[in-house]
Amino acid sequence: MTRERAAALVFEEGSRRRRRTIAGMRAMLLAVLAGSCAAAATVTAAPGDSAPTTYPTGAPAQQTHPVVRPHHPTRRSHVAVRFTLAEAPGRRGAFESDYRVQVDRPARSRAACAAAAAPRPVTSGAQGSRVTVALPAPSRGWCRGRYVVTVFLQRGPYCPKPQGGQPPQACPEFATQDLRVGRTTFVVGAPRR
Length: 193
Description:
Radius of gyration: 24 Å
Structural class: alpha+beta
Number of helices: 1
Distance between the termini: 89 Å
Shape: extended
Helix content: 10-25%
Strand order of the largest sheet: 3-4-6-7
Order of helices and strands: HEEEEEEE
């Protein structure tokens, strides 16, 4: 066996080991990610868009059972969603959680039908309490059609704000997770039955 061939075999064996190590690391990373997420999340649209969006769904005990009032508003109605806090929002150790509400405009509607602003997040409250969140209407009023209201439990790292003149503290390095914990609809311009 020549020196060149021996060197090539050693290099090839080293490459195989590296590929196995990388494949093992990739498998371990996927296992960790699968264990930390209940389901895979694919975000295909920005909040307010009517395109379908898929998020991980919270466990049954995390569901908030939202209800919109009025269920059949007019173009100028004040609309609000009411739901139950499955867990208390706020800071717990290195984690911070809150509830966010997303309003998706009716399918095949123009961009002006999207809400003018995102509803305010729910950052405090006791577990099991009912909260009401006002839904900001589009600037020209609600459009005809079915709006979809989704409630998310957002969990992420707690990053304290720097105190006057102090350098910022280190923030835990893990991803924020949005769990879909409630969904309901309301229809504008539908005849009442």
